[in-house]
Write a structure and sequence with these properties.
Layout (H helix, E strand, L loop, with lengths): L7 E9 L5 E8 L11 E4 L3 E10 L2 E9 H6 L10 E6 L18 E11 L9 E7 L13 E4 L2 E9 L2 E6 L1 H6 L10 E6 L1 H15 L1
């Protein structure tokens, strides 16, 4: 389990394997390698991936993860190449602060950025905020609610507005600086995980109608 609070931005340093089957990725991170056990779960750009190798390096560590066919089909992982930057989050420990919302790392599909607008409020010393207009997959649009939570590329965000399958989020200067959001542009694909509570509420409603 995760919270959608990014703790590092990693960089893919190698990607091996046949497209659509199994891909092994090596990712540089600033994490202490002594704290990462083989088999540990790390949210990499949204998807929860399992560490299969880890070694120290200057400034932190590198770790390997395997992405299977389902992940390659439903997420942006299949497009990652050497140099791709990705948001990272370690899995929760009992007693950790729940700063975002409950995130499983099970990506539901791909959303698309339609528009990025910089919003500068007067002489804001922290830099501009950015408004992103995003198109959700039609089968997921019903799970996205105004002022609700959504996880995009591993980042917990609050939905500002919803109109059909379009929704907007505001990204503050800090988040733009410490995640991959500062590099995002029109047309980019995003890994989207809808709110867990919304998913279960919809399932219960379906069950009641059927029963």
């Amino acid at each position: 389990m995760f919270t959608g609070i990014v703790t590092d931005v990693g960089e893919v340093v190698s990607a091996e394997g046949a497209q659509g089957t199994l891909k092994r990725l090596r990712i540089n991170a600033s994490y202490d390698p002594a704290t990462i056990a083989l088999g540990a779960s790390i949210a990499c750009g949204g998807p929860c991936l399992t560490v299969v190798a880890v070694e120290p390096r200057e400034g932190g560590c590198w770790f390997d993860v395997d992405a299977a066919a389902e992940t390659l089909e439903r997420t942006t992982v299949g497009e990652w190449r050497t140099g791709t930057k990705i948001n990272l989050e370690r899995s929760l420990k009992i007693g950790d602060e729940l700063g975002g919302h409950i995130v499983t790392g099970h990506v539901d599909g791909l959303a698309t950025i339609l528009k990025v607008e910089a919003i500068t409020a007067g002489d804001n010393p922290w830099g501009p905020t950015a408004r992103f207009t995003i198109k959700a997959p039609s089968n997921l649009a019903g799970f996205i609610a105004e002022k609700g939570s959504v996880c995009l590329d591993g980042t917990s965000l609050t939905v500002n507005s919803v109109e059909g399958d379009l929704f907007t989020v505001l990204i503050i200067p800090h988040t733009l600086a410490v995640t991959t959001w500062g590099e995002r542009k029109d047309g980019d694909k995003l890994n989207i995980e809808v709110d867990l509570m919304a998913r279960y509420a919809a399932r219960l409603a379906d069950a009641r109608r059927a029963g």
